[in-house]
């Protein structure tokens, strides 16, 4: 790794969206009051409430910007050779400043400078630029000559803070496709979970299943309620079981209805884990061949994608068929998956014995792809991966010390005496699989992982991150947080919710009440030593923060914590100025045609001393960083965020490896939903993310 000078960019105060309320100054009385309240209050809720009062102050936090860099702005309107751009003076523009036009839409990163111009008029929020050659379009970037920018960065508050409401379906039935996977199927007990949006189904008494016009006797059981705001009122998922003959017809469909109570006698529920096909996969593990177990159902159920997306079981989603905002994203994701599928070592399984391929929860990624596409192969692949991953979660019977660890990562000797890696404990995919199957073993594995995060191997996340020897990074915090959130949602265990709130408090304090002696800059600042990079540079990992923002968003949906939208907006502002590097005129002088690099995030970004790059290939992380900016745009519509997202999503790396597939796509499918919802409020999202 090498240290590079961070290219600091100018800030925008809102462009067309004036920000009326901003965060309090770092050295103002409100911050001291919030810190005292957080420390002295015996109630997390009271402390959070008082911190929100401080958050609502009208002052602005600032932090010194140490670098001399180009200013960057976005083209907002074009009239002949005159461009209206934003921001203006607040972003570092001044009259007679030379600029270049860049269009970051080429997926291979080969875009050229497409125009040159000069600033002719400046206000605080906008400026006019006259093109001297070339062309420009709305949402292109302008890059200025290198200059010294304003030392202040503003951390504006989110302007959209109302939690979204799920779509209430008009219909009271769905069609479910059934595919027998047993080699010689006969009369089978079909078993699957149906997820429901909040406020739709009070209990399971109105459920009925029809094969054609014939109503079938069923067994039904609510697997978990929705626990939004701690109020378990309606069903989140219901297990349904019935018998059907697949002897002559291995593929069939049924209708699940909830408009009236079933008229057939109820049946007892059969444990779903008794209805599975147990299989073995021969693969290499630690340079030796090993037999690894996995499972799949005798009959696979494929639910309608629009219903799955609207259920919010995998978070708010939009189907691939309905995606008019980011079709190139879905094509890249599905193409990547199908390339991996084509390389399968056997006919019907796509599992790997390399523990690194499971990094960042491959199960939830595959389930989200299935939810959005309705693809039967993805449904089967997600099921296989979920069962395979669960089989590697160490139970208390196997090792009390290693309970919850990932066995594929650790040898028996390590489980007995070694250090155990918490970054392979992922509850989100396990929780979703339970909601879709009712298999109680997955709930038990989540309990094991909770014990793991509560053990000495995960306890550092609740301590002072600046002192603990095991280090701290956003990835650890993200998956610990998601673990507690999903464990609470399945079980209602208040201990899990308390742990989630503790993490929220910790992340908020790191961001707005730092103890390192420097003013807040919007990041959850920590040292490069604790991040695992060595040295003592204070900063933040942008790509790992794309994992953390997903946990913050889910916490907000569940609890309504008022801090969350402002936490997300503040980090997006940090990432806009410090987190993504591109180029400067100074380092392009040897290139005759002045060809810029494509945008990419710093591996580790700092507002105090620049950014740490890896090998120049950090466009590997462009997709999830683009997702980060789209989430920021949802909470505070800003053309800068949207244009960054467009440039990053259109300029992602062309190489692919399993871990990259996981980190790029595990959470970013939700970007399409953010765009749809933002456009519904502002009418602007599609115009900025149209075709290339």
Search tags:
disordered N terminus, 692 residues, alpha+beta, five-stranded antiparallel β-sheet, six-stranded antiparallel barrel, globular, 34% helix
Describe the fold and architecture.
There is one protein chain. The protein is α+β, with helices and mostly antiparallel strands. It is 34% helix and 20% strand. Strand 2 and strand 3 (82-86) form a beta hairpin. Helix 9 (440-454) packs across helix 10, helix 10 (474-491) runs parallel beside helix 13 (542-559) and helix 15 runs antiparallel to helix 16. The protein is globular. The two termini are 34 Å apart. The relative contact order is 0.13. The model is unreliable at 1-67, 106-110 and 584-596 (pLDDT under 50).
Secondary structure layout plus pairing:
Elements lengths: L1 E3 L24 H12 L3 H12 L12 E12 L2 E5 L11 E5 L10 E10 L4 E8 L6 E8 L24 E8 L6 E9 L12 E4 L2 E3 L2 E7 L9 E11 L5 E7 L18 E10 L2 E10 L1 E4 L2 H7 L15 H16 L19 H12 L2 H16 L20 H6 L10 H10 L2 H15 L19 H18 L2 H19 L13 E2 H4 L6 E2 L2 H18 L3 H17 E2 L18 E2 L2 E3 L3 E4 L8 H14 L3 H11 L8 H8 L4 H13 L2 H4 L4
Antiparallel strand pairs: 1-23, 2-3, 2-7, 3-6, 4-5, 4-7, 5-6, 8-14, 8-17, 9-13, 10-11, 10-14, 12-13, 15-16, 18-19, 20-21, 22-23
Helix pairs in contact: 1-2, 3-5, 5-6, 5-8, 8-9, 9-10, 10-11, 10-13, 13-14, 13-15, 14-15, 15-16, 15-18
């Amino acid at each position: 790794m090498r240290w590079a000078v961070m290219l600091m960019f100018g800030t925008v105060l809102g462009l067309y969206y004036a920000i009326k309320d901003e965060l309090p100054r770092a050295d103002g009385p409100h911050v001291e009051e919030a810190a005292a309240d957080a420390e002295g209050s015996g109630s997390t809720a009271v402390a959070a409430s008082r911190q929100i009062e401080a958050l609502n102050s009208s002052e602005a936090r600032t932090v010194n910007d140490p670098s001399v860099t180009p200013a960057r702005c976005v083209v907002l309107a074009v009239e002949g050779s005159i461009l209206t751009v934003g921001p203006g003076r607040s972003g570092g523009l001044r009259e007679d400043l030379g600029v270049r036009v860049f269009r970051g839409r080429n997926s291979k990163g080969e875009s050229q400078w497409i125009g040159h111009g000069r600033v002719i008029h400046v206000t605080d929020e906008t400026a006019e630029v006259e093109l001297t050659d070339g062309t420009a379009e709305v949402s292109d970037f302008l890059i200025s000559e290198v200059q010294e920018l304003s030392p202040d960065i503003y951390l504006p508050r989110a302007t959209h803070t109302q939690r979204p409401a799920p779509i209430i379906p008009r219909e009271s039935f769905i069609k479910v496709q059934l595919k027998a996977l047993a080699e010689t199927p006969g009369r089978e007990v079909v078993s699957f979970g149906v997820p429901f949006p909040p406020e739709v189904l009070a209990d399971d008494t109105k459920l009925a299943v029809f094969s054609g016009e014939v109503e079938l006797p069923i067994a039904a059981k609510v697997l978990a309620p929705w626990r939004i705001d701690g109020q378990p009122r309606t069903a989140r998922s219901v297990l349904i079981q019935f018998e059907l003959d697949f002897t002559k017809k291995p593929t069939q469909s049924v209708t699940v209805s909830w408009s009236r109570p079933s008229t057939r006698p109820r049946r007892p529920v059969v444990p779903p884990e008794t209805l599975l096909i147990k299989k073995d996969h021969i693969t290499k593990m630690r340079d030796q061949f090993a037999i690894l177990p996995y499972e799949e159902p005798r009959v696979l159920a494929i639910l309608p994608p629009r219903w799955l997306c609207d259920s919010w079981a995998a978070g708010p989603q939009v189907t691939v068929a309905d995606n008019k905002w980011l079709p190139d994203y879905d094509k890249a994701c599905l193409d990547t998956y199908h390339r991996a599928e084509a390389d399968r070592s056997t006919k019907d399984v796509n599992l790997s014995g390399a523990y690194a391929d499971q990094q960042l929860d491959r199960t939830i990624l595959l389930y989200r792809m299935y939810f959005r596409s309705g693809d039967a192969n993805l449904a089967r692949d997600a099921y296989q991966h979920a069962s395979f991953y669960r089989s590697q979660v160490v139970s208390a019977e196997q090792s009390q010390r290693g309970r919850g660890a990932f066995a594929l990562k650790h040898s028996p000797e390590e489980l007995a005496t070694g250090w155990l890696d918490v970054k392979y404990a992922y509850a989100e995919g396990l929780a979703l699989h339970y909601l879709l199957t009712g298999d109680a073993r997955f709930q038990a594995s989540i309990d094991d992982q909770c014990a793991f995060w509560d053990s000495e191997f995960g306890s550092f996340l609740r301590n002072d991150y600046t002192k603990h020897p095991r280090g701290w990074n956003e990835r650890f915090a993200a998956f610990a947080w998601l673990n507690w959130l999903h464990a609470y949602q399945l079980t209602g265990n208040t201990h899990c919710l308390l742990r989630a709130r503790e993490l929220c408090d910790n992340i908020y304090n790191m961001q707005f009440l730092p103890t390192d002696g420097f003013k807040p800059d919007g990041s959850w600042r920590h040292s490069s030593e604790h991040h695992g990079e060595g040295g003592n540079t204070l900063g933040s990992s942008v790509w790992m923060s794309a994992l953390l923002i997903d946990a913050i968003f889910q916490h907000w949906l569940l609890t309504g914590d008022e801090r969350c939208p402002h936490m997300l907006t503040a980090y997006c502002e940090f990432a806009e100025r410090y987190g993504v590097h591109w180029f400067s005129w100074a380092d392009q002088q040897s290139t005759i045609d002045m060809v810029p690099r494509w945008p990419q995030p710093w591996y580790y970004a700092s507002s105090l001393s620049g950014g740490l790059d890896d090998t120049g290939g950090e466009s590997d992380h462009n997709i999830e960083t683009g997702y980060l900016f789209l989430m920021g745009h949802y909470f505070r519509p800003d053309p800068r965020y949207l244009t960054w997202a467009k440039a990053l999503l259109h300029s992602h790396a062309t190489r692919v490896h399993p871990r990259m597939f996981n980190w790029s796509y595990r959470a970013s499918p939700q970007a399409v939903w953010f765009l749809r919802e933002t456009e519904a409020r502002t009418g602007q999202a599609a115009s900025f993310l149209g075709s290339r």
